[in-house]
Amino acid sequence: MAQKASKNEKNSKNSYTIYDDHTTGTVEIADEVISTIAALAATEVEGVASIIGNITHEKAARAGSRALSRGIKIRVEDKEITVSMVILMQYAYSIPETTRKVQEKVKNTLETMTGLGVREVNVSVADVAAQ
What we know:
- By secondary structure, this protein is of the alpha+beta class.
- It has a single domain (about 30-130), classed as Alpha-Beta Plaits.
- It is about 30% helix and about 40% strand.
- It has 3 helices and 7 strands; from the N terminus they run E-E-E-H-E-H-E-E-H-E.
- It has helices at about 30-45, 55-65, 95-115; strands at about 5, 15-20, 25-30, 50, 70-75, 80-90, 115-130.
- Strands 4, 5, 6 and 7 form a 4-stranded mixed sheet that branches.
- The termini are far apart.
- Mean pLDDT is about 85; it is low at about 5-10.
- It comes from Bilifractor porci.
């Protein structure tokens, strides 16, 4: 199980131990980091205009990644992540194909960057944006 390691007193965010080698130390990762990784991965998929509740990938690069993690819900249980997000699609893109690509991209990116498994990536499409 991804151990719930601590609750940061400043912002009350959960963090999880993803690596614990008693000779070199412990690595913890916060929910917000997982959310930011998921949001960045999703907005890299062609056809995704933005994550609902936050800003676009390009604006986040200028504003900082904290704004990008809003709108993503993360749950970590038994060393597996469940992600739920709501996206705004760009007009003229296939919703089934684009959302499948989002799921694959988010899953692969989270597993590579965190070392945790991904149980589910739930994607809801809230609206379509004109190009």
